[in-house]
Amino acid sequence: MTGQVRGVQLARLLGQWHALPGRRRSPDYAALAGSVRGLLADGRLPLGVRLPAERELAEALRISRTTVTAAYRQLRETGHLASRRGAGSWTMLPGNHRVASTGLWTPLDDREMLDLGVAALAAPPQLLSAARAATEDLPRYLTGAGYHPTGIIELREAVADAYTARGLPTSADQIMVTSGTQHALDLVLRLALAPGGSVLVESPTYPNALAALAGRRARITTHGLAADAGGWEPDLLLGSLRQTRPKLAYLIPEFQNPTGHLMPASLRERVVATAHAVGTDLIIDESFVDLSMDGTEPPPPVATYDRHSRVISIGGMSKPYWGGLRIGWVRASAPQVQRLAAVRVGVDMASPVLDQLVAVHLLADAEAIVADRRVQLAVQRDALLGALADRLPEWRVTVPRGGVTLWAELDGPISSALARAAEEVGVRLAPGPRFGLDGTLERFLRLPFTLPAADLVEAVGRIAAIRYDLDRAGRQRWREPAVIA
Name one Pfam family in it (predicted). Predict the structure, then answer.
């Protein structure tokens, strides 16, 4: 159970619930219940929270208590609310849902779903040979306990060599291997951020980073990214650092998720200098650094400009290789790595040795694997761009020079409604509000180009069909939602 939402808070989240598409044919209680399901569908209302009492919500919405009572009853009937007399009502999901690896709650019968909520590729063909080679290497580790809190030496050296090749001299004792990039972020936050500490993030940004910050009860301020190719406004970003003086800033300078922007070298240097001047530590997420396209060469790593151990870089295997291989890392000063290892004991002891050995072999073949990925992604990106231009020409998209996602500006504030409707036609979307705070970014939608080109074209065709249906005055239909947990 994660807490309680008050009547005025839920009213603010519901917004113009009575003006949704198809509202004219829906009774008030059905529209209210549907809007609550919609909040669950786009992740703005978590599972397990206690909703306000009927009278409290009725007063906040300025409607009759009878309407709220009927809405709650419908939510109980559809499996989205559990109530106990004298104790209250809690949000939940119907019994035929499960947690998927994406972090979404999904129906069990979703095999035909075109999932555009996940910005990750299927495994490369080289994974099998890497796994076989790893099993041959494993015996030499079997005589030990298998705990390597900072990672096995072969993998730390391989990651350090990759940083050195990018122009940032790095030794193995500056690398800590983690169970994925998200785990790396969590450990850094545990070390560097006290509960309630202040953090600056980009807007939009990676949703799971926001979830990690929420877990630390961080006080979050945002720097809004421009929709065009420039992305960061240097004076505004540096001004935000000077004015708010946050304890941490979490940035994604390489093919930013979700916008695809690439931060120029000049701004990287200025950000590091400003962070040092105001006492801010930088967490730099490099998840997409290998996935450049069109001959684009990313600027030097942000840590290149660091002379005071202000920059902690995190990365991993999920995006260029495979999300099922839970290998990530932290690059920091050697003393910081040792402190992270001490913090890790309270979370887990070490990453699996076999997975680390697989990663060693994949990194040894990185040049060929990454080159294939770049070609594959460029083809899929162009197919997605072509389909959007053909079927949804009113949407504005800046062509990214790397990464795996497009950030589309829609022709209206319909992102969440579109995502709910898309479930009806077998397409899962990640609506704009997932990537920001307080339900903003309804005019935007993240579209990854990680599926095969034919699937992307098909998905856009289905989205285009239901996009125009949203403008029709029909009764709103609700599917059991894919809810963000």
Answer: GntR
- The Cβ of residue 125 has, within 10 Å, a number of other Cβ atoms equal to 9
Q: What is the pLDDT of residues 63-93, one digit of tens each?
A: 999 999 999 999 988 888 888 777 788 888 7
Residue-wise pLDDT for 197-233, tens only, equals 999 999 999 999 999 999 999 999 999 998 776 899 9
Q: Which two tokens stand for residue 125?
A: 């063909």
Rounded-to-integer distance, Cα 174 and Cα 191, Å: 16
What fold does the segment set 140-364 form as a domain?
A: Aspartate Aminotransferase; domain 2 (3.40.640)
**Looking at the DSSP assignment, which residues form a beta bridge with residue 282?**
249, 311
Is the whole-model pTM more than 0.70? yes
Burial of 22 (0-12, 13-18, 19+ CB in 10 A): middle
Q: How many helices (H) and strands (E) does the chain have?
A: 15, 20
Neighbours of 139 (CB within 10 A): 8
Q: Which pLDDT score, from 0 to 100, does residue 102 have?
A: 42
> Could you tell me how many residues make up the chain?
485
Whether pLDDT at 5 is above 70: yes
What fold, for 97-119+368-484?
Answer: Aspartate Aminotransferase, domain 1 (3.90.1150)
3-state SS of 307-329?
A: CCCCEEEEEECCCCCCCCCCCEE
Provide the sign of the torsion angle of the four alpha carbons 181, 285, 484, 11, taken in this order.
positive
What value, to the nearest 5°, has the Cα angle with vertex 191 and ends 186 and 193?
85
CATH number of 3-91: 1.10.10.10
